[in-house]
Design brief:
Strand content of chain A: 25-35%
Strand content of chain B: under 5%
CATH class of the largest domain in chain B: Mainly Alpha
CATH superfamily of the largest domain in chain B: MetI-like
CATH topology of the largest domain in chain A: Rossmann fold
Structural class of chain B: mainly alpha
Largest sheet of chain B: 2 strands, antiparallel
Number of strands of chain A: 19
Structural class of chain A: alpha+beta
Number of domains of chain A: 2
Shape of chain B: extended
Helix content of chain A: 25-40%
Oligomer: heterodimer
Shape of chain A: globular
Radius of gyration of chain A: 24 Å
Number of helices of chain A: 10
Chain lengths: 399, 424
């Protein structure tokens, strides 16, 4: 119960931090329209939203989320974490059990999906198989009763936007996965919605194509100034594409932050585990002194780290450190670094990096990553080395 | 190597053309596969295809006249049927000889019966003549013209000889002409007498009623199939059992049940009378007419419509409807523009199945159809079982078969049989 309450608190805290970070980010990119954004005029707003399918368990628990106009927000989380349900509630295919969802200031809880004017890209594209590409794109314009000439013009412009002009007469089945993806994107954009939802749109593509499409989608979104809510379970996708990422787990937002904040400053152990690779060591907090805490690991060693959501001695904690922040080369260790003895268990050559598995303080799954530079040392199996890191890179999180 | 070698067939490692060596490699497999299905193939050929072919062959076969009365047929060749004159003594003599041999072999009744289809009265004429002819002496008994006319005055009429001549060929189109309400005469094919014209009407009725039944199956089956495809699996299974239940009940039982339901003293009429919606004296006539046939056959054929539609609808993911709605389509537009076109192959498959089954249906129209609601198949059964005119029955069946094949072909041209899906 204690944990439960503390996660709610951290959730709310994150929410407001997220907002302030958004302002920071917009200053960096220099978009004047976004700097004025305050919490009051959020474009999309979830307020205390809950969702239950069976009346027994909540799939979404007390969701509060504000998305600014022009923002690219990603909902990231494992399957069953409630992210897709949130998206479906926004699209209107699911109704919120409690709470309100607002779009541009007006509540859309009771507006049917076809009147919401929200573009959507589906996981398997959902291109209508019995229509050609051009007919697919014209469909949203037709149901809006636009004239033929305007329709054709808009369809052509949308096809041009995704560089698919030559394919207007084809059927979806005659297109490759990547091409279908582009058409689905063009169809969601052709009626010029201000908000576009994407439900794992790149899930069915191979790795190379996926990376290419990531850039295309973000480029397009920024160029058109549309707001995008993007759902994925792929953390790399979330980090590379988004302005902000909301990490979902167990029906709650665990952390809402910009990608760099999320990666470098995870605020609880779920986020630390879920985003990127992480070394964790369990232990007990010995003392907390402002920006520094002493933790006695289960292996016996005591290390210094940054307290994130531990506040008093005696609490159990999970200490987290990124593999690339660990250094074994003494000459490169920064002053103030904390060192520990380690034994090399495994060395994996991965091309651009080396991945070395060590036994540290009784944990034999400790990973370090080093860049494949000309002067890089390859550790020998069985070697005894001294590894170290800055206490500020080492975060004491909830157990 | 010359330039032309670029177009030469690709060779396998041992120098034989690749195609040849591939087919050699596959031959063994093919032979084994063929042997596995051989019992079924032989069974189908012996028990299904051969009887059908031999039955259909009867629609043109006509060697009974030529076989029984060979001399008469020969002699009639030189007689001009259109002059209105009686044939000469040679024809009468040939006939007398033929009928005497036939009477001894006791096959004269068969040919009489055959010719009786074309001109009534011939059967009894042949019987009577044969009885007398048994005692005739072929060498000294002549002239036979007077003798035959003496047996029966009809031998003095040209119609008899015309009928004999027209139907003397070994193969005939006569049955097919009969099947479309026409008959062979000396002046070429002509329409049957007004009171004998029934078969074209029956064909027409069969087609129209089959179309109505197919249409009502689509209307009733579509929502059920949609429900089956969209409710949770457990409920869908229960529903599916309900749909399939009629398959496990005898066809006769189901049809008889409709008799109980629809008759004038039946369940529906009683209910309507009790509710006061129908006066007791004006009970609805819902059976022994077209209504009865349509109601009962729609019920019986409904599963054949629902199952193909269901299997197609099952493969349409709900995201299409969601996508359509997210693009601004109302529920109806989303259904009509996005969902319905994708179910057309299912409707097509179901319609072909139901229509082809309906067009050849026999038992149900027989029981609930009365006289107004019977199909062409009932007429075929009548020809085969009652009037024993197998040739006509075979001709009707051939026309029915060809009609179905033409419809199937037309459907293939329009919709494409590849688009038809019977299974998931």
């Amino acid at each position: 119960m204690v944990i439960y309450r503390s996660t709610v608190a951290s959730c709310l805290r994150n929410l407001f931090k997220g907002q302030s970070r958004l302002v920071l980010w917009t200053k960096v990119t220099g978009d004047p329209n976004l700097t004025d954004n305050t919490a009051q005029d959020a474009f999309v707003e979830f307020e205390k939203v809950q969702k239950s399918y069976d009346g027994e368990t909540l799939v979404v628990k007390d969701l509060n989320l504000r998305i600014a106009k022009g923002e690219f927000l990603t909902m990231l989380g494992p399957s069953g974490s409630g992210k897709t349900t949130c998206l479906m509630m926004l699209a209107g295919f699911e109704t919120a059990t409690y709470g309100s969802i607002r779009l541009d200031g007006t509540s859309i809880n009771n507006i049917p999906p076809h009147k919401r004017g929200i573009g959507m890209v589906f996981q398997n594209y959902a291109l209508f198989p019995h229509m050609t590409v051009a007919e697919n794109l014209a469909f949203p314009l037709e149901v809006r009763k636009l004239g033929r000439s305007i329709r054709e013009e808009k369809v052509n412009r949308a096809l041009e936007m995704v560089e698919m002009q030559a394919f207007d007469g084809r059927r979806p089945a005659q297109l490759s996965g990547g091409q279908q993806q582009r058409i689905a994107l063009a169809r969601a954009l052709v009626f010029e919605p201000e908000l576009v939802l994407m439900d794992e749109p790149l899930g069915a593509l191979d790795k190379q194509l996926r990376e290419k499409m990531q850039f295309e989608i973000t480029g397009l979104a920024h160029r058109l100034g549309i707001t995008v809510v993007y759902v994925t379970h792929d953390q790399t996708e979330a980090l590379t594409m988004s302005d902000r990422v909301a990490v979902f787990d167990d029906g709650r937002i665990q952390q809402l932050a910009t990608p760099d904040q999320l990666y470098e400053k995870p605020e609880n152990s779920f986020v630390a585990q879920f985003i990127g690779e992480n070394n964790t060591m369990e232990g007990v907090v010995k003392e907390v002194d402002g920006e520094l805490a002493k933790v006695e690991l289960d292996g016996g060693e005591t290390i210094a780290c940054k307290p994130i959501n531990v506040n008093r001695p005696g609490e159990r904690t999970r200490v987290s450190i990124r593999p690339e922040r660990v250094e074994f080369n003494k000459s490169r260790l920064k002053p103030g670094a904390h060192t520990l003895k380690a034994e090399v268990l495994e060395f994996i050559y991965m091309g651009d990096i080396f991945r070395t598995r060590l036994r540290v303080a009784g944990n034999d799954q400790f990973i370090i990553k080093t860049r494949n530079a000309p002067d890089q040392v390859r550790l020998e199996l069985g070697a005894e080395v001294e590894i170290g890191w800055l206490p500020s890179d080492c975060r004491a999180l909830d157990a | 190597m010359s330039a032309s070698s670029y177009t030469a067939p690709i060779l396998a490692a041992d120098g034989t053309p690749l195609k040849k060596s591939l087919s050699r490699a596959l031959r063994q497999q093919k032979r084994r596969a063929l042997m596995l299905i051989a019992p079924l193939l032989i069974f189908i050929f012996v028990a299904f295809i051969m009887p059908i072919v031999s039955m259909l062959f009867r629609s043109v076969e006509n060697d009974i006249v030529a076989n029984t009365l060979p001399q008469t047929v020969m002699a009639l060749q030189s007689w001009d049927a259109e002059t209105g004159e009686l044939p000469g003594e040679d024809v009468y003599a040939a006939f007398a000889s033929d009928i005497k041999i036939a009477a001894k072999a006791k096959i004269h009744t068969k040919v009489g019966l055959r010719l009786n289809y074309e001109q009534s009265g011939i059967a009894s004429l042949f019987k009577k003549t044969a009885r007398k002819a048994k005692k005739w002496d072929m060498e000294t008994g002549g002239p036979f013209k007077e003798k035959l006319i003496g047996v029966h005055k009809n031998w003095g009429k040209t119609e008899i000889w015309q009928t004999l001549k027209i139907h003397s060929s070994r193969y005939t189109t006569g049955y097919f002409l009969n099947a479309i309400d026409m008959r062979k005469t000396a002046m070429g094919p002509q329409r049957q007498a007004e009171d004998k014209q029934i078969l074209l009407l029956l064909f027409q009725r069969t087609l129209i009623m089959s179309l109505v039944i197919t249409g009502s199956c689509i209307l009733l089956g579509y929502p059920v199939a949609w429900l089956l495809a969209n409710v949770p699996v457990r409920q869908a299974n229960l529903l599916l059992i309900l749909v399939l239940l009629p398959f496990w009940t005898s066809l006769l039982v189901r049809t008889s049940a409709w008799k109980v339901m629809l008759q004038q003293q039946g369940v529906i009429n009683d209910l309507l009378v009790q509710l006061g919606m129908v006066a007791d004296g004006a009970r609805l006539v819902m059976i022994n007419n077209q209504t009865g046939t349509i109601v009962a056959m729609t019920h019986i054929l409904l599963p054949f419509m629902i199952l193909p539609m269901y299997s197609v609808m099952q493969t349409i993911p709900p995201t299409y409807l969601r996508a359509a709605k997210s693009l601004g389509a109302t529920d109806w537009t989303a259904f009509w523009r996005v969902y319905f076109p994708q179910t057309v192959p299912g409707i097509g498959a179901g319609s072909i199945l139901v229509f082809i089954l309906a067009i050849g249906y026999y038992i149900t129209p027989e029981i609930v159809g009365g006289t107004k609601g019977v199909f062409i198949s009932n007429r075929i059964a009548y020809s085969i079982l009652k009037s024993l005119n197998w040739g006509l029955g075979a001709a009707l069946a051939t026309i029915l078969l060809v009609a179905v094949l033409i419809l199937y072909w037309a459907y293939d041209k329009m919709v494409g049989i590849d688009n038809v899906k019977l299974g998931g």
